[in-house]
Amino acid sequence: MNILTRMHLCLIGCAILFVPFIGSVEIISVLGGLGKNGSIYPLLLGIILFILEMVMHKRKLYIPEGKSFYALLFFCFIGVLSGIANFAELSNLWYQGANGVFRFFLQIGSVIFCLCTALYIYNIFRISGGEQLEVIERFVMLSFVMAGGYSLLELGQLLGVVSATHALYFFNGFFRGENADLLYLRIRSLAIEAPTFAMYVSILFPWILSLWWKWKGIKKAFAILIFFYFILLALLSFSRTAYFILSIEAVLYFILFQYDILMRWKSVVFTLILFLLIAYGAIYQLGNIVPIDVEQVFTSLFTSDQTNQFDSSTNVRYATTVAGLLIWQDHPILGVGLGGYGFYCFDYLPSWIWQSPDPYLWRDNTLVRGVWPPIHNLFARLLAETGILGVMAWLSAFVFLFWEEILVLRTQIGQMESVLLKNLMVSTVGAFLCGFSGDSIYFSFYWIIFGTVWFYLDRFKRGIYS
Questions:
Q1: 117 near 43, Cβ under 8 Å?
Q2: What's the CA gap between 261 and 277, in Å, rounded?
Q3: Which of 36, 147, 228, 286 has its CA 20 to 30 A from that of 235?
C-alpha cells in the first residue's frame, strides 16, 4: 500500500472521527448546511486529492455495480430535472437575500458531493483492500471517546460543577458559531442540538452494544459500563428521535443476533435485568438533575397539551411536515425544485404553528442569511422539492442498500466480520429513520455506509469470498 492510499485511509478515518460534529461547525459558510458538519472537511480534501491523482497520475476510477449506486444516480438526475422544470419560477424567488436558482445549485451541488463521497470511499477501500469494517469500528469507537469525553463536561454542568461550565465555554468557542448557545440544558455532545445528537446516537448504538460480544473477562464488564454511559447520554438528551430510533434498533439488533443471544441467554438475561434496574434508577433521578420530565418527552408525541414544554417543538415538526406534503400535492411529479421548500412554505404552513415561538425566528424576510425555514422531515422535503420521482429514487436506494448488505452477510465471511456487518445494517436503519425527524440528507455517515457496502459487494461479486 503506497503512502497516498494510506493518507486517503487516514482522511476517511478522520471523517468518521468527526461524525459527532453535526451542524455545529462554522468554517466555510459558502458550503451552507453541508459545511456545518465536521466530517465534510477531511472528505472534501480527500476527494480533491483523488481527482488530482486521476488527472496527474491517471488513477483509475472504479464504478460500483450495486443497484443502490444507480438508484442514487437516478436521484441526482431527478434533482437536476426538478430544477430545470422549475427554473423560471426559482429565478424569480427571493428570500433573505438568497435567490431560488442559487439555492438550487447549492443543494444539487451538495447532493452530488455526497454521492462523490460514497464513490471516493468505495474506490479507496477497493484500492487498499483489507477488512475495512474493522477500520470503521475503530474510528467509530474513537469518535465516542471524543464525544463521550465532551459529554462528561456537560454532565458536570448539569450537576452544577462550575469548572465544567467554564471548560464548556472554553471548548465551545473553538467550533461553535458566535451566535450558538454555548450552554445547553440537555446532552447534545458535539452536535448543534439534542435532536441532531440523536443522529449520531442512531449509528453508534450497535457498535457500542457489540462490545459485549467481542470483549472477554474483565473487559466485558467494562463494555457494560460503556453501554450504560451511552444510554445515560441518550436519556439525558431528552430527544424523542433518540428514544424512538433506539427502540426500533434494539428490536432489529435482537433479530440479527438472536442466535448469539439464545446461546448466551443466561448472561444476557442477567445483564438485561441489571440494565433495567440501573436505567429505572437513572430515570427516577433525572428530575433531580435537570428540570425536565422524561415522561413529557414521550407524551408530547401524542398530545396537544400546551403545558407540556415539548409540545411546542412537536407542533413545529408536524406543521413543517404538513407544509411539505401540501406543497407536494400542488407539485406532485417533480416538486418545486431542489432547495425550493423555504420559498413556498409560508403559503402552506397550518395556522396552529404560530402557537410556537420557532417560526417567528425564520419568517423575517428583511434579514440576509437569517434562519432559513426548516422542515423536520426529510421525506416530506423530498416530496415537496423533487416530487414522487425523487422520493421513490431515494427510498429505492436504501432498499437496494439493505438488500446488498444481506447478500454480503450470506457469504462465507468470518464470525467477527459478520458481527461488524450486522452492526452496519443496524446503523443503516438508524440513519434512514433519522429522516423522519429531520433534514438528514447531508448526514455523512449515510454516504460512508454506501461506499463501504459497495466495497464488500464488489468483493463478493469478484469471488474474493467463497
A1: yes
A2: 20
A3: 36
**pLDDT at position 23 over 70:** yes
Q: What is the pLDDT of residues 173-190, one digit of tens each?
A: 788 765 556 667 789 999
Is 107 in contact with 336 (CB distance < 8 Å)? no
| Close Cβ partners of 33 (under 8 Å, ≥ 6 residues apart) | 23, 110, 439, 442
Range 321-342 average pLDDT = 95
Q: pTM of the full predicted structure?
A: 0.90
What is the C-alpha to C-alpha distance for residues 38 and 450, in angstroms, rounded to an integer?
Answer: 19
The confidence score (pLDDT) of residue 365 equals 63
What pLDDT, in 10s, does the model give residues 351-410? 888 888 888 778 766 666 667 888 999 999 999 999 999 999 999 999 999 999 999 988
Class of residue 390 by CB neighbours under 10 A (exposed 0-12, middle 13-18, buried 19+): buried
pLDDT digits (tens, 9 = 90+) for 26-50: 777 777 778 889 999 999 999 999 9
* Rounded distance between C-alpha atoms, residue 122 and residue 106, angstroms: 25
What pLDDT is attached to residue 334?
Answer: 95
Q: What is the mean pLDDT of the chain?
A: 86
Residue 466's pLDDT band (cuts 50, 70, 90) = very low
3-class SS letters over the chain? CCHHHHHHHHHHHHHHHCCCCCCCCCCCHHHHHHHHCCCHHHHHHHHHHHHHHHHHCCCCCCCCCCHHHHHHHHHHHHHHHHHHHCHHHHHCCEECCEEHHHHHHHHHHHHHHHHHHHHHHHHHHHHHCCCHHHHHHHHHHHHHHHHHHHHHHHHHHHCCCHHHHHHHHHHHHHHCCCCCCCCCCCCCCCCCCHHHHHHHHHHHHHHHHCHHHHCCCHHHHHHHHHHHHHHHHHHHCCCHHHHHHHHHHHHHHHHHCHHHHHHCHHHHHHHHHHHHHHHHHHHHHHHHHCCCCHHHHHHCCCCCCCCCCCHHHHHHHHHHHHHHHHHHHHCCCCCCCCCCHHHHHHHCCCHHHHHCCCHHHHCCCCCCCCCCCCCCCHHHHHHHHHHHHHHHHHHHHHHHHHHHHHHHHCCCCCHHHHHHHHHHHHHHHHHHHHHHCCCCCCCHHHHHHHHHHHHHHHHHHCCCCC
Burial of 26 by CB count in 10 Å (0-12 exposed, 13-18 middle, 19+ buried)? middle
Model confidence at 292: pLDDT above 60: no
pLDDT at 26: 74
Beta carbons of 15 and 444 less than 8 angstroms apart: yes
Alpha carbons 233 and 354: distance in angstroms, whole number? 32
